[in-house]
UniProtKB/TrEMBL annotation:
Molecular-function GO terms, alphabetical: efflux transmembrane transporter activity; porin activity
Compartment(s) of residence: Cell outer membrane
Keyword Glycoprotein among UniProt keywords: no
Record family assignment: Belongs to the outer membrane factor (OMF) (TC 1.B.17) family.
SUPFAM superfamilies for the chain: Outer membrane efflux proteins (OEP)
Organism: Christiangramia salexigens
UniProt cross-references to Gene3D superfamilies, sorted A to Z: Outer membrane efflux proteins (OEP) (1.20.1600.10)
Name of the protein this chain belongs to: Transporter
PANTHER family: OUTER MEMBRANE PROTEIN TOLC
Coiled-coil ranges per UniProt: 243-270
Amino acid sequence: MKNNSLMVFLMLLCSVLYSQEKKWTLEECVNYALENNLSVKQSELDLELTDIERRDALGNFIPSVNAQATNAWNSGLTQNVTTGILQNQTVRNFSAGVTAGITLFDGLRNFKQLQRAKMSKLAGEYSLEKMKDDITLFVADAYLQVLFNKQNLEIIQSQNEVSLEQLERTTDLVDAGVLPMGDLLEIKATIADEEQRIILAENQIQISLINLAQILGIRDYKNFNIAERDYGVFGSEVLNNSVQEVVERAREERSEIKIAQANMDLAAQDVELSKGAYLPSLGAFFNYNTRESGQERVIGFEADPQDPFREIGVVRETEQIVVAPNSIAALGDPLPFFDQLSRNDGFSYGFQLSIPILNGFATRNQVKRSEVGVKRAEYRLEQAKQDLEANVYQAYTDAKGSFKAYEAALVAAEAQAKAFEYASERFDVGLTNAFDFSQAKIRYENTQREALRAKYDYIFKLKVVELYFGIPVSELKF
C-alpha cells in the first residue's frame, strides 16, 4: 500500500515538474490548437453533422419497417368478438402487426438528397480547413506578441544594467568632484523609470501568455510558457510573385472561395429538390396482422332450454304455425394465446400512388424561394471573390511595406547603437552630461524596440501572404 502511494506521489511530482519546465514552441502551439481549440472542435462537429445528413439520405433508399402491438381491456356495452352480439362485459383483446413500406419513385428526390448531402460534407470540410487557417494565424499572432514582449523586456533590462553601471561610475566621479550632483540625480531618475517599465513589460508578458493559452484552450496559466527562441525571417520568396499571381493562386486554393462555391452548388441542388415535388410519387407496402382475445369461444350449438323452439312461419292454407329448434351458441374457454395468433393472422399488400394536383401553390413557391437562394449564393460567391482579392492586395501591400519598415528599423537601430556607443564614451570622460547620455540611451532603446516590433510584424504579415498563396499550414516556415 505504501509503495503504491509513493508511486502515485512520484507521478504527480513528475507531472508538476514537467508542467513547470515545459516550454511550448510555435509549432507545438499550432498543433495543439488545431486539436483542442473550441472553434475547431465546433467546426468538426459541423462536419460530423454532414455525415449524419448523408446517412439520412441513404436511409431514404431503405424500406421502413414498423411493428405495433396493443393489449386492451374494454368494459361495458361492447361487441362480443365471437358472437357479434352487443352485451355488457369486460373483455381483453390483443392485436399485433408489422408494416413495411418503401418508396419506389418520388421525383428522384432521394437521389438528389444524397447528392446534396455529399455537397454539404464537402462544404463542411472547406469550413473546417478555413477555421484551421484562421486559428493558425491567431496562434502565430499571439505567439509572436509574447516573443516581442519577452525580448522587449530583455532590451529594457539590458539598458537598466547599463544604467546601473553608469550609476556606480557617476557616483565615484561626483564624490571626486569631477561631475555635478545633477548628473547623479539624472541617472537615478533614469533607473527608476526603467524599473517601472520593467514591471509593465513583465505584466505585458503575462497578459500575452494568458491570451495565447486561452486560444489553445489551456487553463493552467501559471505554468504556461513558450520557448524563448529567435524566429528568423523565412519565406520571403513568395513576395517575388506579383500580387496578381498571388490573387489567382488564392482563388484556386483558399477555402473562402471553395465554401462560397459549395454553398452555390447546394442552393442549385435545393432547386432540383423543390422541383421534384411536381412529380408523382409511388410507394409499396406490406402489412401482416393478427389478434387474440380472452373472450370465450363458440364450441358448438345447443337447444335453448328456456325457449327450445322458435316460430319461423305460417302455412297460408291451414294457418298452421311452423317452428324450428331454437339453438344457442355453446361457449368454451378461449384457445391458447399462440393458437389464436396463428389462426387469426392475415396480411395485405399493394401500391400507393400520389399525384400532386393543387397544394395552394406551396411547391411553386418553394421552387421560387430556392431560385432566390441560388441568386443569393451567386452574389455571395462574387462577393467572396472581391473580398479575397481586396484582402490579398492588402496583405501583399502590408507585407511589402512591413519589410521596408523592418529594413529601415534595422538601419536606424544600427545608427543609434553607434550614437549610443559614442555618447557612452563621451560620458565616461566627462564630455557630456547625464541628461544627454540618458536621451541617447532612450533613443537607442526605442530603435531596438521598433526594430523588434517591425521584425515580428513582418513575419506575421508574410505568413498571411503565404497562406493566401496556398502554402499549407504544416509547411509554413518560421
